[in-house]
Amino acid sequence: MSGFTGKLDSYTMTQLNELLEDDEKLNHIVQELEETQTVQQAKDMTLAGNRSLAEQNLLLQPQLDLQKNELTKRYRLLQELFEAYQLRKSTLDQHAGSGSLDTLLALLQAEGAKIEEETENMADSFLEGGQSLDSFIDEYQSKRKLAHVRRVKIDKLREMVLKGHRLPQAPVPSHNPTASPALNPTSDTNGSPMPP
In the chain, how many domains are there? Predict the structure, then answer.
């Protein structure tokens, strides 16, 4: 405020008293000070910068909203995929250890359908004269017998799948080195050594 005091140094007491009574003139003197103008310029520059940033933000707002919506959609999709994964994992866990009955059933059904198709083709070939009677009878009966056996297996396996049965597991051999007394050929039923 050295500029302000410098201006007032030349004022008489009467002029100073008049200045105190005249707010408009006092404000005019303050506005003409270099310090006041510097502060005002900085204020104007700050306001202009804020206005420019606000305008840029307004221009970017549609893009921001679009990206927010896209992010929301992707998050929901991720949630759906995760829930589907959890459901699938739970289903697989429930069927774990079932000995792949479903897979075995599907393979047997595919083989059964293949046999049925082969027998139909054989019959068509015989009717068209492409095969002798003896050869047809032997091969056809063999195929039909195999188809019947597989159909029985498929029916039994399907029943097991519906009832939730599992394939039998191979017995785990015992690794206990100590033999049971009943299985020891050198002992009697009471576990005592047999005489030589």
Answer: 2
132-164 exposure pattern, b = at least 16 Cβ within 10 A, e = fewer: eeeebeeebeebeeebeebeeebeebeebeeee
Q: How far are the Cα atoms of 22, 100, 138, 150, 170 from residue 113, in angstroms, in the given order?
A: 112, 20, 20, 10, 30
Residues 68, 28 share a domain: yes
Q: Which of 81, 1, 90 is nearest to 39 (CA)?
A: 1
Provide the pLDDT for residue 175. Answer: 47
CA–CA distance, 34 with 31 (Å, rounded to integer) = 8
pLDDT digits (tens, 9 = 90+) for 16-27: 777 778 778 777
Say yes or no: 76 and 46 in one domain: yes
Which of the four pLDDT bands, split at 50, 70 and 90, describes residue 162?
confident
Please check whether residues 110 and 159 belong to one and the same domain: yes
Can you name the residues that pair with 187 across neighbouring β-strands?
193
Radius of gyration of the chain (CA): 50
Q: Is residue 1 part of a domain?
A: no
In a domain, 3, yes or no: no
Mean pLDDT of 18-44: 79
Tokens matching residue 89: 């994992």
In whole angstroms, give the CA distance from residue 83 to residue 89: 10
